[in-house]
Every structure is written in C-alpha cells, then in structure tokens.
Amino acid sequence: MATPPQPKILRPASYVYGQWHANPEGQTLLDAVYGRPVAVISSEGVDFAQALAYGREKGAALRKLTFHTRARMLRALATYLMERKEDYYALNALTGATRRDGWVDIEGGIGTLFAYSSMARRELPDERFLPDGKVETLGKGGTFVARHLLVPREGVAVQINAYNFPIWGMLEKLAPSFIAGMPTLVKPAPQTAYLAERMVRDIIASGILPEGALQLVTGDPGDLLDHLQEQDMVAFTGSAATANKLRVHPNIVARAVPFSVEADSLNASVLGLTVKPEDPEFALFVKEVAREMTGKAGQKCTAIRRPLVPRHLVDAVVEALKKELGKVTVGDPARDDVRMGALVSVEQRERVRETLQKLGEEAEVVIGGERELMGGDREKGAFLDPTLLLCRDPLNAKGPHELEAFGPVATLMPYDSLDDAIKLAKMGRGSLAASIITHDRAEATEVVLGIASTHGRVLVLNREDAKESTGHGSPLPQLLHGGPGRAGGGAEMAGLAGVRHHMNKVAVQADPTTLAAMTREHIPGAEVREDVIHPFRKTFDQIQVGDSLLTHRRTVTEADIVNFAALTGDHFYAHVDDIGAREGIFGKRVAHGYFLISAAAGQFVSPAPGPVLANYGLENLRFVEPVGIGDTIRTRLTCKRKIRKDLRPGETRPTGVVEWHAEIRNQDEVLVATYDILTLVERARDEFDPVEDAEGGRQMAEGGSARA
C-alpha cells in the first residue's frame, strides 16, 4: 500500500489573554503512523503571568453566573462540538489512534460535557454558591446556627494533560471546573496538542463561553508555575516522576496551591478462583484483557497491566489470549480493517521497549513478535505489537509491580489463593482501577473489600452485567477517576464531587433568619411570611422561599386509628392492641405515623385544580414524638427552596419543583413529625425554554441563544 500524501503542516497556536499567539518556528512533531512532519509547536513569547492574571480578572464574570446558567452553556457547547466531531476524527488518526479509539476520546469527552450539564441542572441550585450539608444548631434557644457554603475559588484552574487523550483529558477537567465557576488554562501534552488546539479553536469561535473562561498553551509551559497564587489550582495527568517534581515546586509549596495528580497505575484484573474455562466469566476476562492491551495501543492510564489468574488456569488463559490477540490487526488506523494503531511517537515506543527489556529480567514473553503491518511504516512509525509476559513468581518479583510499559503490554501473574490475589493487586502501591471477574458473590466481596483501600474504582464483571458494563478501563463522569499512592491521590470527575473540589468551603454562623436570607433556603427557626393567598394557589414564579401556611387543628380520635388500620391493613399492636400498647415503649395506643402524614396533607392541601400539579416526593421524614388518642395536631408548611426544571422533549408545560418543609406539632407545641415535600408546580415560560419555530422545530426563546 502506497504511503498517503504528506499532510499539511499544522501550526497549533496558544490562546491567551483573549488572542491567538503563534510562532513560525518551534518543535516539529511527527505523525505516529508514517513518521512524517505533522505539526510545529511553540509557546515562545507567551507571558504566563499575564495569562494567569487575565484569567483571574475575567473569572469574576464567570463567578457571577449561576450553576444552571453555566450548565446551559456547557450543554450548548457540547451540542456545538458534537456537530463538528468529524473535524477532530480527521486529525485523530495522525496520533496513531483508530476511529474506535477516537470515539472514546472525542465523543467520550463531549459526552462528559453533556453529563456535567445534566448533573448540575438536576442536583445544584440555580445559585452562585452551594449550601453544603445540614444546618447546625449552635445554641439551646435555636437563635444561633451555622452552615457550610461552597463558593468559587477566585483563581485559575491550570490543567496539565497527557498525550493519550487530548480531547477527553481536556474536557473531563474543564467540565467540573467550569460548572464550579473557575476559569481554565489548559496545557496539553505537545505530542497531540494539535488535536486539542483544533477543538479549542471551535470553542472560542462559538462564543458560548464567557471571555477568559478558557485559555490554551500548546508549547512549553515555561515559568507558568512561578506565577501561581493561593486561589489557583493545578490538575496534572502524566508520569509519577514528573508529578513528584511539580508538586514540590517552590511556589506551589509556598502558596499552598492545591495540586491534584493522576499518574502511573499498574492496574490489576483478577480472574476469580472459582471460574472454570467453560464459564462465561472466563471468556469475559480474556476479552477484557485483550481489549485493554490493544485499545489506544495500550496507552491508557486505566489499562490492565497485571492480569491475575489462578495458577491452574495459566496455560488456558495464555492459549485463549493468543487466539483473541491473534485477531488484532495492526497498522494505519485510518483503515477500516485495522484494530490497533501506533503508539504516539517513536520515542514513546522506544521507552516501552526499554521497559519490556527490564520486565524480561523477571518475566518471559509468551505472546509477542511482529505481525504483518496493514499500512504504516514499521521503521518511521511508532508500531509495537501486543506483548504478553508471564511472571511465574509474582509475589517475589519487583519489576512487574514497579515498571509500567505504557503500551500494548501486560504481565500475566498466577496466584494460589484469594489472599495472594489481593496481596498482588495491592503490590501496585495504588491504582486507578481494578476488576474482579467472577460470578461468585462471596469471592467478589472478599476481593473488592480486600483491595478497596488502594484503588479508586473497582469493577465486578460477570454474566449479569456484561452487556451493560462499560469495561475495566472506562472512567465515567459520575464516578471517581483517581487513585491513592502511586496513582497520585487525584480526585477527578466523581460526579458533583469534582465540582466541589474546585470550590472553597466556608462555615457561616448567624441567626436563622439571616442565614436563610443568605442561602435562599428556609431554615427552621427563621422568620416566615404568611399570606391570605394559599401557597398552593401560587405559581412557581410567585412562590417565595419562606412563604408559609399554619393549618387548622385536628384532634386524633380512636376512630381515626381504627379506620386507618382497617384501610391500610396495618394492625400493629401499638395502634390497635390496648394491652400490648400499654406494655410497649409508649405506654398507650398511638396513631400510625403515616396517618399523621395523611392527616397533615388534609390540613394543608388546597383541593381545587391549580398551579400545583403533583406530589413529587417526600424526604427526610422523622417521627419525633408519639401522638395518642385525644392529642391535637396542626401543621406548618413552609417553602424551603425552589428548583426550576427544564422542559423535556415532548413536554409543553413548564414546571419547577418546590420543596416544602413540614412540621407537625401537638397541642403543647411539641414537634411530633418533620419532613420535606416536593411538589411539581407550573411556572411561566422563560428565555431558556424551547419554542416551536415556523417549521415545527425547537429552538431557544429570544435571549436564551446558544448560551442556554
């Protein structure tokens, strides 16, 4: 096959302090497949102090936006980028990655933006700050309370990414920091910076993100770290050796700059001791190991480096992997018939070869050798065929637990007991991910709990979840991506924990009314507002936090208890057995707790059709004191907080969720039950609601624009 034409030389630029900065000269990058010049990269002339100062200054505007506004921007950006994904795939093959590899990087990265936008709009308030945890009562009289708040840091999130995922690595860091209100300065690895730069050009051109929210430095970082300040943060993905140098940078230490690391990880996958060759789990293990060895040519921080198998299954596993890896075609990733491309560079291939040689001192190659190359240049390209080693005495070996060959390489290790398997997994001294493949629940439990302290994520894979499993090596936005020890101790993504990581936690002490006004959430003990208009007759837009209703009284009778027992079938002795109740903890018959909830609803519900459309849920229910025959109850219902809901496809009625705090008290004003009620309430259309255009399509209302 003829070598494709020489691609146009790319000159990826930096985007700093609101402008593009390029140099005609710099480091020449070669494509991974044919070894041809593909890009020239440099950051010469970039003023890093100015870039950080610019981000901090412009970040003030970003912090003034609410979580929901930022989330809508992120969703609009994700949609915009997804429409241009083929432009990114066009450059993807130059990095040595197949289209399937690129799908994880490109569409996986954009999908992370969608995921964070959804999580933020669903779980965070439409505010610039986040109340965190419960209200703490600090005084006996209830007039002195406290609560933690999370607020955006007033610095720049410096994000230093690895070469293997130039898009996903950038977007999975950008998403939580942007939702948190923190501007970002991205520093991609030079080998694949041209792909990251291509996407950043589109992000800037879209005009969706506020000015200063994103900056890019494509070349050498120069003295960037010298200019960090206390409000800045650093997130680093790369080798542990580099991370250890950076985390003790004098300025980072002196200013206590938060420094998060995602580094080396010798991830293990354990084939259960109970698994037989004919079991589905055996085949699942073999496929998973082969996939993790060859996906991205093994250049994944979560790839399986140490498959652990029962000693009596070693030969069977080797034979099965020979067959599975034999199906893997290697060559030009632009070809449809190629399953594994090249490493990112010849230099990286040589580093892997050097590591392989060292691993060979304690392990032997059982699968390897060069196969036919389907396109690409064996000499100038960065190809390395899948290689499996076998370490026969792993408990007494060192190299396989210390040296990571960051390529299509794994070292098979036999074990004799689950205790040995757990010990071997932990010899990696901290990993991002591990997996246990077994259908035996007791075995899975023992391994998971045995290795949990040294891992960030553990997958239990078996015939039950295989069809839906995303696999050993797939980080997800909702889950932690990070690990202790050698893995760096980082904490990326992890759902909204990743957002909280970019915010400052402050404890605020005040009286209940002041704290409620500050947090815009009602706090028990705070002042309330009573109105002649029933709160259930108000729309979402009319209801205000603190709006309250104090109901009429109701005396609980024996007939109430008997009838409720008959209606529900709940004949628990404390309610219907006079003798048993006197001998119980209450000393008398008491009303059902759920009768109290039902009676309270009868007290505060406005029965006519109106803005309140449905009961959406009930949370935090506590029965505090018993209510006996002859006791009198009444309920106070207070608007605790409001949550706007986006219209879903097909929906035409805008709504929001109003959370009400309910307190039921007896005739002595003693609290007997407390809970929160969620109601679905109609709201007016706003600028963020889609409208039908003249052709029947959906678009944002005027004012919502792309930023919605």
Automatic annotation (TrEMBL):
All residue ranges annotated as the MaoC-like domain in the record: 545-646
Membrane-traversing stretches: none
Domain Aldehyde dehydrogenase: 46-451
Highest taxon listed in the record's lineage: Bacteria
Pfam families: Aldedh, MaoC_dehydratas
Gene3D superfamilies: Aldehyde Dehydrogenase, Chain A, domain 1, Aldehyde Dehydrogenase, Chain A, domain 2, Hotdog Thioesterase
Renumbered residue ranges of the record's region Disordered: 689-708
Keywords: Oxidoreductase
UniProt protein name: Phenylacetic acid degradation bifunctional protein PaaZ
